[in-house]
Design goal:
single chain, mainly alpha
């Protein structure tokens, strides 16, 4: 059973393209997570500052701007929410991309990979049931 060399090359190219897409998405998640952690550090620094009414220096690209702390805090919190949403969307995309890669490789779908965390409300209900 000899395979057509062009078929094998197309198959390998497809698998490689899918794998590169998975790796690129993972790297995007890592980069956004680093940015999210920096924002979290900045928010913490603003919260711990003993003079809450002063202004703060905020870096936008390669430029520093002095803003009231309340405005800087609001901007950072908005950025945090956007980053969280972007990361969650990329993670959902990653699940689909990994499944496509496994399918192209002829491997079975990953078990438990599509699980979602329970919400705080769901956890409260579970705890009530377990406790009595």
């Amino acid at each position: 059973m000899a395979r057509d060399p062009s078929f094998v090359l197309r198959y390998l190219a497809e698998v490689e393209e899918l794998a590169e897409d998975v790796l690129a998405t993972r790297q995007q998640i890592v980069d956004l997570d680093v940015k999210r952690n920096r924002n979290r550090e900045a928010l913490r620094a603003l919260q711990r500052d003993p003079q809450p009414e002063d202004s703060a220096m905020v870096c936008f690209g390669s430029m520093f701007v002095e803003l009231p702390k309340a405005q800087a805090r609001a901007m950072l919190q908005h950025d945090q929410e956007q980053l969280d949403e972007e990361i969650n969307n990329l993670r959902k995309e990653l699940r689909v991309k990994v499944n496509r890669l496994y399918e192209a490789q002829g491997k079975p779908e990953l078990k438990g990979f599509n699980l979602n965390p329970m919400s705080a409300e769901e956890m409260k209900l579970i705890n009530r049931i377990v406790e009595g």
